[in-house]
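Predicting holo structure, sulfopyruvate bound.
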Amino acid sequence: MIKAEKFRKLLTSQDLDFACEAHNGISAKIVEEAGFKAIWASGLTMSAAMGVRDNNEASWTQVLDILEQMSDVTTIPIMVDADTGYGNFNNVRRLVAKLEQRGIAAMCIEDKLFPKTNSFLRGESQQLADIDEFCGKIKAAKDTQTDPNFSVVARVEALIAGLGLKEALKRANAYHKAGADAILIHSKVSKPDEILAFKREWGNKCPVVIVPTTYYQTPLETFKDAGFSMIIWANMTLRSAIQSMQTTVTRLAKSQSIVDIEDSLVSVAEIFRLQGDPELKEAEKRYLPVTAAKAVSIILAASQGKELGDLTKDKPKAMLEVGGRSLLQRQIDTLNEIGVRRISAVVGFGKDRVAKHLPNLVQIVNDDHGVTQEGYSLWLGLKSLPAEHCDKTLITYGDVVYKKYIPSILLEADGDIVIGVDVNWRSGESENNYTDLVACSEHFRKSISDRPITLKKMGSDVVGSDVCGEWIGLMALSATGLGSVRRVLADIEKTNPQRLKTLRMAELYNELVKRGQEIRVVYVTGHWLDVDDLKDFDRANYF
Ligand code: SPV
Ligand code: MG
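Done. Tokens:
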């Protein structure tokens, strides 16, 4: 059943139904969750939430925007308080078309003049609309709607204006004849007598809606017995929000601390829930590349890179600009593109520069960067991972650039520890550089094989025909692999803290292999490079 049909059923059913006020997306959601079957999009509270008066200071397109937000996040019907229809019959026609586009089920228009004033303000001096002119608006609305269930509720303000029951009935009759689906009879007194008198005279010509803001003490049974169709709780949602905001911020302004306030607030988790984060989490499972969606990454970017001379005099190697973006920024962009969830970097040399240029990056500081190696930075990075952590962790060097398929295939590969190895390693160019040469269980073959290839050894003592390639500085860890790496590092820290400080990644891998940990190798053929010296830097600019 679509919303307009649902609303029409509520309006015409024999039961007394309720519509509760909402003024934006989140309040509409809260109203639906509370169990209400309809929402009153109140002119008073929507304008108040915008910080303006209920005098048509908010434009009708601003109101439409709010209605769209409310409608998008709810499944129950919305009746909009459309004031006087924001103009004459022609404005009403356009309004109805726009409301239907946004899935709004019903519109209430009141027989006052534009710009209107709230009924509880200076009621008796408020002028009412000419009856025929207002009937023209109702007819125009009914002729415009394309969904036969869209409801037009005509609001009679005669009692508000102090014009008495006779005038109220005269108007209600005319509006009913003009095609209104229901009458809203409004009153501002604290007793229900005048609306009850109206209903007695009116009988059951069409459904009657009331707004018991001032005569709220009347027992519900009275309204039921009188045969009203719907009650609008017109402003309680915003009033309770205002009260709560005032209390909280007043206390906060005084105490300058949330210690005593925190327990009285909803959690941030509750905001996420209301925003629909659980749905997004599910959708990510369906639509994001599986492994990347669950991955976090740590970029090891603490070192200066002295080999690059003046280029890294006052900034770390990872902040070198290649093609207009720093190496670090390039990695962040690539990892974002493949959907890696949390990207962090271990920084050291020139850390302020990183913080300034990449303020949103999670940064872990290695203050001993001058006397430590990557193994130690990795240890710091791993220690900073959140306890409730994702399925995969991607570790990368800070001075590498690569095509985005490379981290993707590492994350998707089977194995608890997976490293990328380039078979096109640059022999002969490594005298000055630190190149991580690797020996593997099998050399690269162009034919497809299901046999997993594993690391046997990494380091400068891998020579000759044993060399299968060069480690590219990227490693993917499963939760189990992460555990193994953590254990090795923790053991080294315990037994030989100094060794941990100068630990190279090759030593870490060899230790893992020694302990029987399988390290899977994924061969690549280029499509990456690292920046160890000026020649590399030049090459990187053409990457
Ligand atoms: C509103 O909620 O904006 C209404 C009802 O129009 S009242 O404020 O009672 O007039
Ligand atoms: Mg209003």
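The first strand starts at residue 17 and ends at 22.
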